[in-house]
Design goal:
Structural class: mainly alpha
Low-confidence stretches: none
Distance between the termini: 84 Å
Helix content: 55-70%
């Protein structure tokens, strides 16, 4: 006599004693079911299966949208910068691209630190206005 154990979805199990020939038929059926399942699913893997096994996919559409928005914003900022005078653009370049401090720029140009700070404040206001007008 052999024992076939059935496992149910609710977690319970049930053991059934069967004769040897019935047990062998049961094993053949289980193997056939496994082969059929493998044949049907070998080229088809569900996303849930992949997620459960730690394989994740990036959402490229969100990245693409972010890239498009970033490019549009960069383009708008460049257009707004073009509305500034050469002196103001030079100040923006020194602060943001060359990463100079206000004190370094002040000592380089012979102007007070407060004057440079005021100029930057004026430039920010002007750029904000240009960017607001550009988005409308």
């Amino acid at each position: 006599m052999q024992v076939i154990i059935y496992k149910f979805v609710d977690g319970t199990t049930n053991a059934v004693e069967v004769m040897e020939d019935i047990y062998l038929i049961h094993l053949q059926l289980v193997q056939m079911e496994k082969r059929n399942h493998w044949r049907e699913t070998r080229r088809h893997t569900s996303l849930n299966y992949l997620f459960e096994n730690g394989i994740d996919f990036e959402d490229k559409s969100a990245d693409t949208l972010a890239i498009i928005i970033r490019r549009e914003n960069i383009e708008r900022v460049h257009k707004a910068l073009l509305t500034l005078s050469d002196k103001r653009r030079d100040l923006v370049r020194k602060v943001f691209y060359e990463e100079m401090t206000m004190r370094q720029i002040a000592s380089q140009t012979g102007v007070s630190h407060t004057a440079i700070s005021q100029r930057m404040k004026t430039i920010r206001k002007r750029l904000q206005k240009e960017l607001r007008d550009c988005s409308i």
